[in-house]
Amino acid sequence: MGVQQRKVAVQDLEVGMFVSDLDRPWHQTPFPIQGFYIRSQDDVRALTSHCKWVMIDVAEIRESKELKESLKPLFGRNGARRGNGRQELQLPPLSIREPVSYEAVTTLKKEMKASQRLLDDAELALNRVFETARLGGVADLKPIAQITSKMVSSVIRQPDALLWLSRTRQHDKYIYRHALNTSVWALVCGRHLGLNEGLLNHLGLGCLLSQVGKVTLPREILDREGQLNADEFAQYRGYVTSGIALLDGCGLSRAVLSVVQGHRERHNGSGFPEGVRGDRIPLLAKVAGIAEFFESLVEPRDTLEPMTPAKAVTLLYEMRNIEFQEDLVENFIQSIGIYPTGSLVELTDGQRGIVVSHSPERRLWPRVMVMTDVDRQPLKSAKVIDLARYNEGREAGETVQIRECLPHGTRGLDPSRYDVTGGESRWSLTRLING
Asked: Which domains does the chain have, with CATH numbers?
């Protein structure tokens, strides 16, 4: 059945409808994603305060009961249930004590050059910590703490550089890649929240060490980490407690240990190991949890199909006030963008490329490094195009936008072959399209 759009006045909206377009640009509204299901009257009221009419996808309308069932939390990646229900939990808005406002003080190109070896050093340090833990020794955490401090400084100076490097590099082992990328996502979000440098260091180090307990798990469970049956998952969830035990005596702060302890807890109490909920989960653990979950969607183990970042963002938005606190979800999405740095995309003119950076004010129009022409043939030299700048002042039919987000590893799109200049292309978009 095809999907048809229908224009509906906001006062006629009902729970279960899928809003696919608005009567005004999405970036002029507080809605962090383009296209979402109406789950409650609160969503209707939010739309009423910003719009007079919206477009809905007729084939996407669901009965409230069916919608509620379809949005239950996933257990692993095959649709089994991770919780016994989808109760929502409302909390007061996040309050950051003395938030810090960060400004980018260097260019993407300069920061990438400065941080080129940082992730390699981090992976080496993680390897030493994990191997020591595997052998039952007490790990020396000073090297990894020093690397965490350098990662924090890099993200503070320029939030896109480390994210770019982590998304486009090759890792030898999944467990290190997962910990490193989780840490970068979390630091970018923490920077956006205004966490001070000390808290960012606690957050980054906690994320890097959050997976250490997995050294105690059998290889067959690790290799099938998102496709476990109930008995296997019961064993798997013990990795958090094991990680805390392995880190005992290493001199870590309580804040760092709280990240390791709480990164798998969930807002509605469906997480582990303690099943705590809401404001009983420390803020840094909440940030780590949402970052770790997002990373598991976009870069799962090789046995699982990765989700495009845009779809992962949509799933996160559906889980607000269920598995993750609502305003934390919105802050995370605002910090990484609808199309996060490192996302492979296809433009409406057929060109393909990778997102270099984004602006919170223009969430659907990031800067894209174009790597192919309209016929998907590789360009000799990639060109960075600022979609927000190009589309500004143009009629809707003249704009160039992102048509779709492509899976990580899409054939023919290898950003390592090109140099990211960090500057806008001296070529016009018209020349790129027609040349």
From this structure: 5-69 (no CATH), 108-336 (1.10.3210.10), 344-434 (no CATH)
